[in-house]
Amino acid sequence: MAARQPFTDSDTADEAVRATCDDATTCKRFASSKGYWKDPYIQYFVRSVGERKAPEINRGYYARVRGVNNLLDKFVRKTDCNCQIINLGAGLDTTFWRLKDENLMPKKYFEVDFPTVVARKIHNIKTKPPLSKPLIETHSSDSLLLDGHSLDSDRYCIIGLDLRDVVTLDEKLRRFQLNPELPTLLLSECVLVYMNPAQSSKLLHWAAETFHTAMFINYEQANMVDRFGQVMIENLRRRQCNLAGVEACRSLDSQKERFLQTGWEHADALDMMTVYGLLPQDDLARIESLEFLDEKELLQQLLQHYCICWANKDTLRLGLSQLSF
Ligand SMILES: C[S@@+](CC[C@H](N)C(=O)[O-])C[C@H]1O[C@@H](n2cnc3c(N)ncnc32)[C@H](O)[C@@H]1O
Predict the structure, then answer these.
(1) Does ligand 1 lie within 6 Å of residue 114's CB atom?
(2) Which of 8, 33, 180, 308 is the most buried (most CB within 10 A)?
(3) How far is it, in rounded angstroms, from Cα 131 to Cα 217?
(4) pLDDT of 306 above 80
């Protein structure tokens, strides 16, 4: 019998993980269509607005998008755009186009996801001019590298691979002109939780070892040991989606600890209810008037079970250790 490939793209368990990309995109599509924030590009990845989502879900996505963008934009500004971003498990995320529109383009923006997810993203980019135009505009020569599973241009690169294979990750990023000397922002949103602790530790360790000056932003579950957390785990399990890495999501401390144990110098974490309260009050008042929220307690519980954790390495000189919202 032939030896089985260690990480094939066709494993059924991975299929459920890949499907989470559609959940994130449809929720972002719905919330942006309601006016929580502007995303003129997401419509090219999900055509219809789809089913209504509950107000607490929309507010949760609002806090996630605003919170992550806040840290990400500060990093890019502090480096005067002289940096690179690596979005791990990027799915159909549209940050590249937002940064281009806001004149916040890093030297290079990399994305990594499973090959089948990347193939879908590349197909959309190829066939939708509003997506391909900014990419062509930021590219100096006539031809972009475009095959089914990767795209490479001067400023934007998308790579299809399994993030649990860190050797291939390193090799492919370098092939597409990753520069370890450049200040680097790594981002993962609801990605590490689908890997077992050894696999995610390897990835965080690789990142700390590879880049001289770096920041890692991780958005995912926290405080998962209580009853609410257990119900979340059970609901996902029923959809065949196993949170193999939930161990690191026990608390804000365990989220920080995973970075400190893998070579990062400093780590901070805030639960999303706290992040929500720190967002600009005028914009909060605006979004809170968009939809009536009956279940204030549910919003609180939901947001207390997600967090943003950010870790730094040699970023003091950029004034980046004590970021605030
Ligand atoms: C919940 S979605 C989030 C997508 C995106 N980060 C966002 O916030 O819109 C998780 C993404 O991580 C990707 N992912 C999870 N595990 C992965 C792995 N081992 N290798 C590559 N991609 C992975 C999934 O395919 C999916 O696109």
Answers:
(1) yes
(2) 308
(3) 25
(4) yes
